[in-house]
């Protein structure tokens, strides 16, 4: 009788262990399934970019429609026009749940930025920025397009799960006077010891005359050229890139402070660029919304992957930016 009891007990323990092991394996499979599902969702984060929302943001920034309850922003070259722009951006970001910081660096000069903190605590940042000012015109392409792209990225990336790196969304003031706002902001971040692993800036992303969807990547530092090409492939974006050595935009401010930087734009260097540059005719109607949406999707995909710490390709060979063509941009004394 005792032997039978021992055998029964042994069988019971064995069965219990087997069931427990099976349950653990099921849990592991479920967890793996969740990770795979999250990975697929992260891979398609750019699918959440909305052309309609981009359109609505651009219309306000270019004076096509007024901000809610306000008058239209007539231009973004004067102090008054820039202040109206900052007010609109601040209100929109606050409505999205962000806390906006104003970075006043001199009389009538102030950047605005906001931080999207990682779900896993981190001291690393990816910066995404554009200059909000224009010459004294609607500045639709230069640089309502870039300002809109950053605002749309902030709208989308806040919902990306699993972020391991913080993101800064920034709008620079007085770029048209010589990169003034971004220079002050980059200097301040450097003094504070902020660990910015990459600074992505956007300047003029609204023109695609030949319809080939080519995006200029200007002065990509470090791994950035390879990283953009990797994301273009893994996210199946199928875009063409034109690598250049063009400066005179806000990426230079961050590069000079030792941060890896890059500027995204239409094909400024090779000439497929707006004929309305710094003219009164740089209006909402001249912007190619499809191209702006495409560029924004690329930006969201790249910054999203960086925030998730998706590793760069292996065996990168750094090629000097000086090997590539450039074309000067012009500053103004508004």
Quick recap of the structure?
The chain is an alpha/beta fold.
What do you see in this structure?
With about 325 residues, this protein is of the alpha/beta class. It has 2 domains: about 1-45; about 45-325, Zn peptidases (Aminopeptidase), CATH 3.40.630. The chain is about 40% helix and about 15% strand. It has helices spanning about 1-45, 50-60, 80-95, 140-155, 180-190, 225-235, 250-255, 290-305; strands at about 100-105, 110-115, 125-130, 165-170, 195-200, 215-220, 240-245, 260-265. The protein has an 8-stranded mixed β-sheet with strand order 1-2-4-3-5-8-6-7, with helices on both faces. Helix 4 packs across helix 8 and helix 6 (about 225-235) crosses helix 8 (about 290-305). The radius of gyration is 24 Å and the shape is globular. The N and C termini lie far apart (about 100 Å).
Structure characteristics:
alpha/beta; Aminopeptidase; 2 domains; 8 strands; 40% helix; 16% strand
Biggest sheet, in brief? 8 strands, mixed
SS summary, helix count: 8
Percent helix? 40-55%
Radius of gyration: 24 Å
CATH superfamily of the largest domain: Zn peptidases
Strand content: 15-25%
The gross shape turns out to be globular
CATH class identity of the largest domain: Alpha Beta
CATH topology call of the largest domain: Aminopeptidase
Low-confidence stretches: 1-41
Structural class: alpha/beta
Number of strands: 8
How far apart, in Å, are the first and last alpha carbons? 101 Å
* SSE sequence, one letter per element: HHHEEEHEHEEHEHEH
Please, what is the average pLDDT?
89
* Total domain units: 2
Lateral strand order in the biggest sheet? 1-2-4-3-5-8-6-7
CATH architecture of the largest domain: 3-Layer(aba) Sandwich
In terms of quaternary structure, the protein is single chain
């Amino acid at each position: 009788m005792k032997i039978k009891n021992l055998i029964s007990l042994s069988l019971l323990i064995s069965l219990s262990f087997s069931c427990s092991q099976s349950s653990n394996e099921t849990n592991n499979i479920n967890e793996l399934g969740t990770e795979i599902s999250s990975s697929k969702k992260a891979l398609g984060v750019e699918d959440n970019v909305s052309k309609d929302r981009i359109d609505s943001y651009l219309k306000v920034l270019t004076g096509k429609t007024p901000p809610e309850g306000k008058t239209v922003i007539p231009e973004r070259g004067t102090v008054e026009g820039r202040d109206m722009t900052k007010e609109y951006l601040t209100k929109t970001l606050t409505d999205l749940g962000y806390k906006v910081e104003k970075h006043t660096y001199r009389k009538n000069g102030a950047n605005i930025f906001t931080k999207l903190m990682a779900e896993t605590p981190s001291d690393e940042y990816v910066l995404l920025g554009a200059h909000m000012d224009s010459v004294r015109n609607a500045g639709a392409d230069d640089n309502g397009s870039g300002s809109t792209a950053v605002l749309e990225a902030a709208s989308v990336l806040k919902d990306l799960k699993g972020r391991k790196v913080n993101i800064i969304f920034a709008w620079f003031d007085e770029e048209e006077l010589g990169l003034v706002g971004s220079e002050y902001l980059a200097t301040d971040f450097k003094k504070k010891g902020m660990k910015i692993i990459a600074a992505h800036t956007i300047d003029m992303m609204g023109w695609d005359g030949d319809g080939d969807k080519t995006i200029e990547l200007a002065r990509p530092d470090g791994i950035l050229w390879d990283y953009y090409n990797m994301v273009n492939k893994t996210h199946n974006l199928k875009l063409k890139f034109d690598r250049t050595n063009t400066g005179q935009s806000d990426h230079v401010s961050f590069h000079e402070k030792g941060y890896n930087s890059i500027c995204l734009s239409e094909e400024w260097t090779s000439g497929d660029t707006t004929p309305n540059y710094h003219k009164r005719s740089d209006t909402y109607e001249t912007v190619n919304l499809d191209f702006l949406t495409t560029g924004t999707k690329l930006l969201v995909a790249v910054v999203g992957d960086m925030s998730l710490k998706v590793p760069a390709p292996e065996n990168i060979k750094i090629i000097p930016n000086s090997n590539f063509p450039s074309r000067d941009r012009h500053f103004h004394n508004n």
